[in-house]
Each structure stands twice: as structure tokens, then as C-alpha cells.
């Protein structure tokens, strides 16, 4: 058996994101899975309940993330820029944190200067219900609440390609 220094192994594992986080992006793909809309019933950091039904009529980006996830960290600023660009549109980002403590989430948001709607999935049950396997995982829902696109891995959310997709979804109530 070959022995490997755990620090060297970790650096090698994270190198694609550490060296050039933008090049290690996921792709946005039409959702063709068999996942029935599992819904969301979670609380935000102020302990207010949120469900997907609350956002009917809006295009919704559901993003599963964690503060320790390097690819999640790389995509968050672009997600905030996207939200800022679409403030006057029927569009919402639900950033679902998977398993961090509320104090850790608050500190992360402060450091990153994020103002997204953060929901807390304390035990990961919602992530599992959405068939999440890796973070970040994102789903783009149309205004009727149907999953239309999926992204596994980080994405440049404020890119022209994503903008065109969201604009098309916004055109169809």
C-alpha cells in the first residue's frame, strides 16, 4: 500500500478549485430526471418557515451549499450578483445550507457579504429528498414550480448563458 501525506492528498483533491475556481464549473442542463417535486419546508435564520408554495409565480433557484465547501464558496458571489441584477423581477434564490450551525452560517454570510434568502437544512433531509449527492447542487424552477434545470458543481451564476435561461423562464408565467 502506498502511503500518502494527508495534507498533500487534500491539496491535490482541492487543487482544481484552489488554482482556478472559475475553470472548475458545473454546467446548467435541462432537468430530465424523475424527481417529483419534493418541496421545501425549512426555516430561515430568523426561524420563519418557508415553503416552495410561498414562491409560486416566481422563477426560483434552489441552491444546496455548506460553508466548508470550496466550490460552494466560489459560486456564491456570482449568485449574489445575479440576485442583485434581478431585484425587480419575479425571481428568488433559496440558498439551502446543509448541516452548518446557525452561528457558522451567520459568520459566513457576514464575511462573504451575502444577502440571499438562507434556509437551514439541519439534518440534510431536504438535500436527500432532492437526491443531492454532492455540493453545491442547484435546481432552477419555473414560475409554476416545476424543476427545469439542474447544476451539479459550481456555476458562474451571473454569466450571459445563465442570464438567457432565466430570462426565458421569466417570460412564461
Strand order of the largest sheet: 1-8-7-4-5-6-2-3
Helix/strand-derived category reads alpha+beta
Helix content: 25-40%
Instruction: Tell me, rounded to a whole number, the average pLDDT.
Output: 87
Enumerate the spans where pLDDT stays under 50 for 5 or more consecutive residues. 8-23
Main sheet: strands, sense, barrel: 8 strands, mixed
Helix segment tally = 5
Query: How do the helices and strands follow one another from N- to C-terminus?
Result: HEEEEHEHEHEEH
What are the key terms here?
about 170 residues; alpha+beta; eight-stranded mixed β-sheet
Offer a quick outline of the entry.
This protein is 33% helix and 24% strand.
Tell me what you see in this structure.
By secondary structure, this protein is of the alpha+beta class. The protein is 33% helix and 24% strand. It has 5 helices and 8 strands, in the order αββββαβαβαββα. It has helices spanning 6-19, 70-85, 102-112, 125-129, 160-170, and strands at residues 28-30, 41-44, 49-51, 59-65, 91-98, 117-121, 137-141, 147-152. Strands 1-8-7-4-5-6-2-3 form an 8-stranded mixed β-sheet. Strand 4, helix 2 and strand 5 form a beta-alpha-beta unit. The longest helix is centred in the middle third of the chain and has 16 residues, at 70-85.
What layout of secondary structure does this protein have?
Layout: H1 6-19, E1 28-30, E2 41-44, E3 49-51, E4 59-65, H2 70-85, E5 91-98, H3 102-112, E6 117-121, H4 125-129, E7 137-141, E8 147-152, H5 160-170
Parallel strand pairs: 4-5, 5-6
Antiparallel strand pairs: 1-8, 2-3, 2-6, 4-7, 7-8
